[in-house]
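Re: the request from the purification team.
They wanted to know what the chain is likely to look like in 3D before they choose a buffer screen. I agreed to run a prediction and write the result into the notebook, where they can find it.
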Amino acid sequence: MNADHLFHSPAWNQTHGAAENLARTLGHRAVNPEHLALAMLLDPDTVISQIIERLADRAQIIAALREALDYPPEDSTSEGGEATAS
């Protein structure tokens, strides 16, 4: 299915852009679900981030995604907003 015709909200565009930046930073050719999940969870204003915060340990999930992607822990990165988590 070609997704070019789907409507993209500003929030989706921001999340997808952050996921693309994560993938690019890691040298990955494509954006995978893990990049999208991490991008959403790193932004405390996303709905999914707020839901996870209430249901689980968001920081632990972020750490697991970082590990799965071989992305440095937040305290060892010097990147801007992508590398921070609350």
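For the purification team: The helical segments are 10-25, 33-42, 47-55, 58-68.
Please add any questions underneath this entry.
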